[in-house]
Amino acid sequence: MRQRKRPEAPMSPVDALRRICFLLERGRENRYRVDALRRTLESIRLMPEEELRERAQSGTLKQLKGIGDASAAIITEALRGEVPRYLAAVEREHGDESDWAGSELYAALVGDLHVHSNWSDGGSPIEEMVLSCVELGQEWMALTDHSPRLTIANGLSRERLEEQLGRVDAINASLGG
Prior knowledge:
By secondary structure, the protein is mainly alpha-helical.
């Protein structure tokens, strides 16, 4: 079965946060927790590592938008070259990919034909979904967010769809596709 490579120290704070979010989603954990960690991820994704290290050492990480006690600990532990304790706990609970129902069937799949992003009623950003597909060994995914007719699912208007298609084009270009 294709599996994500288990995290080993050292790892970047971004990689630690991404793995935690993936496992929490796979375990169908509280959406609020995943969203909070994704906000942390967005706060630090483009920050130079040296600045992040300085903030961790000076104890000022929590001054950044979206960073609380738990996410500050994840960042600090990853910067120290450790597997963050939070990640280790989530790995113990949700990290065994061999126990997935249908794991043999999944191993034969090369793509996902029906995914919804957080642009409509899905839970993850498109970029994160693409990275997860790549890391899981998939070759493609079909983004199937809802049309404007399904307002209860935050269906995409023509303008939002055009914006989303631009984002998809940029992601494809960044992956060489």
